[in-house]
């Protein structure tokens, strides 16, 4: 095994503390969901599961969950379709003004989400679009938000696929669309999974922008939870959070075999997309 | 018109020309659908900018264009104090996440045991999958007057617990460091992982101590990751108004909190001014940090 840099031993201690720091608030939320005290006092006054009952009987949570799932699914599908088309054009063709186009796609990333939410809210109302307070309006906003990431992931994925197979398909008489569906898409499985997960999670957790675009009947789950938390701080919210954390953890465990294989690591950090664009 | 050109059968030439242009324009056509949401975003931002040049009088937006709202914002001590809180919080959280994030990323890049590595990844990055509301709520439970931390500190002799950690800037800062730390670790880790191991081997073979190797070789090479991390964390902090609302208890006002309350008062012009001031701070910080990164990089190499 090759030696890399050496680690100063106290750094391991700091590393351990950081792990504790990162886990602490989530662990405490789970523990508190069984706390009998309605004021979330510590140490807990007793063990209780009644808060889970409260969650199941609180109607707005259902509406919120339903809306969040609809928006998440819609935004993910649309972002994947639009993003793959954009990445296809950017990696397979010489595009005039590529810099400008890329800047356009990435612009929503530099603008604070509050500002995007407010701007879209103003647009929806002023243009009488019937989009304010609708699921459609939320989906459009979320597509805008996740598109930069999806395009970046797809550009990086397609950039690493040898176009030789696509050329072969074209030479054998397949049209552009057929080639894309039958040859390009099957080669970008990992990219598709990563992009879909990323888009869905981002949409499902989005609050800072969405809150400007919802009406009570279209509140997403984070909005419902935020408004609930502003009103009361009973462990009911902890119970709901525990359920969400359990689902998330389940998904992470499902993805663990994939993680152990290590194929995902190239999608993880940094600014890979820009470099790959230049390389292609 | 030459005779050779007119000899061509016109319809065939037309068809050939159409096919040629079809081929040329095809990639742009493919880009059009994804350009629609981007165009909508652009239109929304322009609309918002126009709104900022109106005035809110008598509970409605007056129609003539004016600089009054901008003047009102820029000449008021209150708004400047909010700008200061926003920038200050952004700077503090950025520094803290980098100070904690760099060593974390460094250790993470050195872990060889696959299971320890995956467990660390899960603990460090799975909070990203949990809603900001849940994480803020967790910190409310930890930092409250009757929270876990004060219960623990109360048992230590010599300390005067309970401490006021919630509903002030301390609480907001702690929660934001937690929420944004993964965004600082990500880019630093990515740069460290890409460094060829030979770099530090060479330095050590030439007699450098581990500290010197880090200071003179590894740190300068990993600065691009640090700068990217700073850019991400700062821009996300200055717009993190939800966490400020929940953990600040109304005492920590960021520009985002003002925007939120202005909209509920229907005062769009003032909200629009605040949104663009926030955007200006974000762009300024991105530019300055990028410049700083390049300057340091050039000096070191």
Describe the structure.
The complex is a heterodimer of chains A (280) and B (301). Chain A has 280 residues and is mostly helical. Chain A is 70% helix and 0% strand. In chain A, helix 3 runs antiparallel to helix 9 (189-205) and helix 6 (135-159) packs across helix 12 (272-279). Chain A is globular. In chain A, 43% of the residues are buried. Chain B is 77% helix and 2% strand. Chain B has 13 helices and 2 strands; from the N terminus they run H-H-E-E-H-H-H-H-H-H-H-H-H-H-H. Chain B has a two-stranded antiparallel sheet. The longest helix of chain B has 42 residues, at 10-51. Chain B is globular and about 90 Å long. The chains are: A mainly alpha (280), B mainly alpha (301).
Total of DSSP H or I helical runs spanning 4+ residues of chain A: 12
Low-confidence stretches of chain B: 1-6
Distance between the termini of chain B: 62 Å
Radius of gyration of chain B (CA) equals: 27 Å
What features would you highlight for this structure?
heterodimer, A: 280 residues, mainly alpha, 12 helices, globular, B: 301 residues, 2 strands, disordered N terminus
Summarize the structure in short.
By secondary structure, chain A is mainly alpha-helical. Chain A contains twelve helices and no strands.
List the helices and strands and how they pair.
The complex is a heterodimer of chains A (280) and B (301).
Chain A: H1 10-32, H2 50-57, H3 59-92, H4 98-110, H5 113-126, H6 135-159, H7 164-171, H8 176-184, H9 189-205, H10 221-231, H11 236-261, H12 272-279
Chain B: H1 3-7, H2 10-51, E1 55-57, E2 60-62, H3 68-74, H4 77-110, H5 114-125, H6 132-143, H7 148-153, H8 169-194, H9 198-205, H10 210-238, H11 241-248, H12 255-264, H13 268-300
Antiparallel strand pairs in B: 1-2
